[in-house]
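Re: weekly structure request thread

Next one in the queue (311 aa):
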Amino acid sequence: MDKYAVLLATYNGEKYIEELLDSIERQTRKDFVCYIHDDGSSDKTVSVIKKWIKGKNNFKLLEYESKKGAKNNFFSMLKKVESEYYMFADQDDVWCEDKVEKLINRIEIVTKDRKKTPCAVHSDMYVVDDDLNVLSNSFIKYIGRDIYRNKLPQLLIDNPAAGCTMIINKALRDRSLEYNDAIDIPMHDQWIMCVAAATGIINVIDEPLLYYRQHEKNVMGAEFEGRRDKVVRNAKDMVTGEFAKKKRRFHQKEIRIAKQLMYVSGIDTKTKKFLMELIRLNNKRKIERMAFYRKNGMDRKKHSLWMRLWV
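Done, posted below.
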């Protein structure tokens, strides 16, 4: 079993993949193994990877069937790779040279006397364009979120932590694989954060440790939306009838995550009660749903009024 593992999921990433791999190789700590699995690329991603990793013992290409999407790809690697700690990498980012060192140092401090407690540590990241020109020094502020809003009710609505900023321990990895149906999980990073909040510890490094490229092919992009933009968009949705439909879908996503969390071990009675009440919200009147959100602190840093109108 490895001590530290980096899991890199790729798909049609030939344009940027070497730049990412170079940045991982330049890390100030090198005592990790980087596992790579490609999800059925139709470009030259795999051939580029094979050529780049040749002769490098701590970079390994896992060759097995496609998993049809980033979420399933990361989950498949979590299942296959045995390690004490896990980090995640996206194919088009560039890592700061001390990213691995800072993540490892922090999680080992946090879990020093709590080895069996599920733990996640995450950082912020720079938002950059194709040429790595910085658009924002904080991804989290750029998308209007708060890096310290890490309680379960908040994470069900707004997850501030991208997977590529995380390190998790084996205890959290094991808990995160306790679900009944991955279809009900939107993305691996939100799920891992919710499991950590429900059963363990979340710790924050409030600084950027990588460069996040913002471009049209991102699976999850960094979108900035001001108050005026929000009002205009919601007004248009109300006119077209899309407002209520979108908000119902948003609410149902929370309920699906809550249902999957009921399969996870180590959740205390109070949290289970909260999850059960959330799952049953569909049968409540609107005023009761709004009261539930308010009572449990299910809000956002911004636009909470709009969110409560959704439910």
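The longest helix spans residues 242-261. The radius of gyration is 20 Å.
Next request, please.
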